[in-house]
Amino acid sequence: MIQTRKIENIILSVITLCAAAIWVFPLYWAMVTSLRRESRVVSDSAGLIPDEFNLTSYIDAILNTRLLTWYWNSIGTSLIITVVTVVTSMMCAYAISQMRFPGRRLLYLVVLASFMIPAQALVVSQFILMNDMGLINTWGAIILPQLIVPVVIIVYKQFFDAVPKELREAVLLDGGGEYTLLFKVYLPLNWGITAALSIITFIGAWNAFFWPFLVATSESTMTIPVGITQVQDTFGVQYARVMSVALLGAMPVAVAYLLFQRRVTEAVMISSGVKG
Amino acid sequence: MTGVILRNVEKSFGAAKVIHDVSLDIPKGAFSVFVGPSGCGKSTLLRMIAGLEETTGGKIEIEGQDVTDQEPARRGVAMVFQNYALYPHLSVFENMAFSLRLARAKQSVIKQKVHAAAEILKMVDQLDKKPSQLSGGQRQRVAIGRAIVREPKVFLFDEPLSNLDAELRVQMRLELARLHREIGATMIYVTHDQVEAMTLADKIFVLKDGFVQQAGAPLHLYDDPDNQFVAGFIGSPAMNFIPARVTGRSDGLIMAQPDGAGAITLEAKSTGEGLSDGTIVTLGIRPECLRPAETGLSAKIEMSEELGGVSYLHARLAGDRPLVVERRGIREMLEGRTIHLTADPADILVFDPDGRRLR
Ligand SMILES: Nc1ncnc2c1ncn2[C@@H]1O[C@H](COP(=O)(O)OP(=O)(O)OP(=O)(O)O)[C@@H](O)[C@H]1O
Ligand SMILES: [Mg+2]
Predict the structure, then answer these.
(1) Does residue A54 sit within a domain?
(2) Residue B49 falls within a domain, yes or no?
(3) Dihedral (CA of A234, A238, A241, A246) sign
(4) Which Pfam families does this entry report, sorted A to Z (chain B) (predicted)?
């Protein structure tokens, strides 16, 4: 009995390790590539083992591309998207969950419905809208359409629904209103989920490619994922440089992930409906 | 002076009417208890006084002020909930200080009031803890402290002890009584436990199906119930009810033959107004009022509960009707025996077929 358990465990571990290796290999390869001289990247002598520690392509990326601008754009837009999305979604969810007003159910249905519409279906009309508003090639165009994240509202609503109604009544008796309720009770009770939702919203915004790619056509408004497409010159793709930009671009998210690992897992589980 | 007055108060949830035309006067400074079976509308009535439920009709006054349409916080009431409803993210101190902070009280005032409340509740050394670090009894004390700090005109309690274990419940009951003595505020307390009601109350309101059945001092309700429901609800073990046929009347007494008891006749003190011979009534006799006699109701004892000083005999009358008899100082084995019982006319209450008391 115990024997079979052990064997099962070993087999499982091996499978997980293989999966992890498959997943990690591109990352590893990017790292190895980015540390080679451009001339060696595609030559026969470039093997699987790292054999060079050459920072040229990193220096190159920083000096000869607009990486720092893209960083700034990515950080700026992602932060604004995160803060605005989380705050407005929280308030919307609070209203739907706790306040009684005509049209409440309808509002929630609209939120649920918009959850089911794929973003791609809206691209054309949103692009035209942004164009009409004169926002193409500004942060505005990158940010505005990304502010609508129905799943954040839905998750918040579920958590607010679960707060016992006596707490609400205790606050009303203590002389508090809706603002006290939301900011002094409902929000503090849900810091965990707030942190989790903020992180996934941030990661989503940071990694967004398709939409920023459409509306940021000048290098000065590009975010990092879009900017990576620009790292080539007239002689074609420069692999080492592209890889170094990609790694530099992914770093903040990786760091954020490592710092808040537990919260992120939690958030992904909640928002995909495994829990809550 | 009256603390809280309800006049013709009604409440419907959609089509369902749960409070029917309730009018009652709750004395200022007294400990009043709403008691009744589950679902009778006790909580709803309390929440209407608190302002947490809107009134569908009627008027509510607190210390002379019409509060029917007033916000909960403006009514001068504080409520203690069954599940405590403490703010889980705040310390005990901050829980108690919450309302004061909202009212922008000075830090020194907050400190002084919270400490005074903690003193009364013997919670001074727990002020830094979070609610999750407290026991059930301590949590309920914090909830009470949160109410005390607000110095309300009326304290409202909705079954505050029902989440506690039996021993703690008795202890907290005593503490509530002490608290009431110490601060002397108007308190309204909801429970479905009639023992709690009897021990705590200055005045009890018995509710059923959204109607007030009777109001009065605990012993008054016990001795002189207005109807069969109150008679059966107040008192433990409950009053025995025996259907009987009226066979005659004579100055202040009526004669009645219990169902299936043959020729046995019981006399009950009642003018018997409006009763004609042959009418079926219900006789109510408390377990402690039944005593053995040469002739009387014959009851077969099925089981006896010996509690030491007192025993309860669970018996069956003819027609399989259950009967409980209280005996003191007797320890002989009675199970399986048949005994004869009677009671003084003054101890037998008469109820008409609708359950109304015939005095
Ligand atoms: N929000 C509501 N919507 C609809 N019906 C309700 C609502 N609240 C209470 N009721 C109904 O009103 C009636 C009285 O409820 P209430 O909670 O006042 O009973 P209670 O006497 O406190 O009972 P318990 O001892 O079980 O707490 C019940 O029939 C209940 O179903
Ligand atoms: Mg109740």
Answers:
(1) no
(2) yes
(3) positive
(4) ABC_tran, OB_MalK
Domain housing B309: 240-351
Identify each DSSP E strand in chain B by its residue range.
Answer: 2-13, 16-27, 31-35, 57-62, 65-66, 77-80, 154-158, 186-191, 203-208, 211-216, 240-250, 253-258, 266-269, 280-285, 291-306, 310-316, 322-328, 338-342, 348-351, 357-358
Residue B269's CB is within 10 A of a number of other CB atoms, namely: 16
* Residue in B77, B82, B103 closest to A173 by CB: B77
Q: What is the value of ipTM here, to two decimals?
A: 0.84
Q: Quick: pLDDT tens for B16-48.
A: 999 999 999 999 999 999 999 999 999 999 999
What residues in B contact A180, CB-CB < 8 Å?
102
Q: What is the DSSP string of B27-95?
A: ETT-EEEEE-STTSSHHHHHHHHHTSS--SEEEEEETTEE-TTS-GGGGTEEEE-TT----TTS-HHHH
Both B217 and B246 in one domain: the answer is: no
pLDDT digits (tens, 9 = 90+) for B249-283: 887 788 888 887 666 778 888 877 777 788 888 98
Contact A166 B102 (CB under 8 A): no
Residue where a domain stops, chosen among B233, B251, B284: B233
The strand pair at B280-285 and B266-269 is best described as unpaired
Q: Please, what is the end-to-end C-alpha distance for chain B in angstroms?
A: 31
Q: Is the torsion defined by CA of A222, A223, A225, A230 positive or negative?
A: positive
**B146·A166 Cβ contact <8 A:** no
CATH of the domain at B265: 2.40.50.140
Q: Are residues B340 and B205 in the same domain?
A: no
For residue A276, pLDDT over 50 is answered with: no
Look at residue B356 and tell me if it is in a domain: no
Residue B17 near residue B10, CB atoms below 8 Å: yes
Same domain, B99 and B197: yes
CATH number at residue A140: 1.10.3720.10
Range of the domain at A259: 66-275
The reported pTM is: 0.83
C-alpha distances (whole Å) from B331 to each of A138, A219, B197, B308, B310 are 95, 100, 31, 8, 9
Number of CB pairs, chain A paired with chain B, less than 8 A apart? 53
CA distance linking residue B56 with residue B51, whole number of Å = 12
Looking at the domain assignment, is residue A195 inside a domain?
A: yes
Report the domain count for chain B: 2
Give per-residue pLDDT as tens, B154-186. Answer: 999 999 988 888 888 888 899 899 999 988 899
Q: How many CA atoms lie within 13 A of B190 on its CB side?
A: 23
Could you give the number of structural domains in chain A? 1
User: Is the same domain home to B214 and B309?
Assistant: no
A contacts of B150 (beta carbons < 8 Å): 174
Orientation of helix A239-259 relative to helix A67-98, angle to 10°: 40
Report CB contact under 8 Å: A173, B87. Answer: no
